[in-house]
């Protein structure tokens, strides 16, 4: 049971870190050139949603690789 809790915490921290990294990377893009609407709050919300989607996807990929490597290590034990 403790292992499940540790994995949940690691997954949550991984998601948050990768969402933060994605958000910082997306700040480099000049979104006002791509989005010509007058409402800047919606643009900020769009960037936040893109960062969440991208960060979650990248984090899930790395967590999957981590899980697979653990399973492979158990196979050769």
Structure description:
This protein is mainly α. The protein has one domain (1-76). It contains three helices and no strands. The chain has helices spanning 2-26, 31-34, 40-75. It is elongated and about 60 Å long. The model has no long low-confidence stretch (mean pLDDT 89).
Number of separate structural domains: 1
Uncertain segments are none
E-strand count: 0
Secondary-structure element pattern, one letter each: HHH
Overall SS class: mainly alpha
InterPro entries: DUF1146 (IPR009526)
Protein name: DUF1146 domain-containing protein
Keywords: Membrane, Transmembrane, Transmembrane helix
Transmembrane segments: 6-26, 46-68
Secondary structure blueprint with pairings:
Layout: H1 2-26, H2 31-34, H3 40-75
Helix pairs in contact: 1-3
InterPro entries: DUF1146
Pfam families: DUF1146 (PF06612)
Protein name: DUF1146 domain-containing protein
């Amino acid at each position: 049971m403790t292992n499940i809790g540790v994995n949940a915490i690691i997954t949550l921290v991984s998601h948050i870190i990768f969402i933060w990294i994605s958000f910082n990377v997306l700040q480099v893009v000049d979104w006002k050139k791509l989005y010509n609407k007058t409402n800047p709050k919606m643009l900020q919300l769009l960037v936040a949603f893109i960062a969440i989607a991208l960060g979650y996807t990248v984090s899930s990929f790395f967590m999957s690789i981590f899980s697979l490597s653990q399973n492979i290590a158990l196979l050769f034990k």
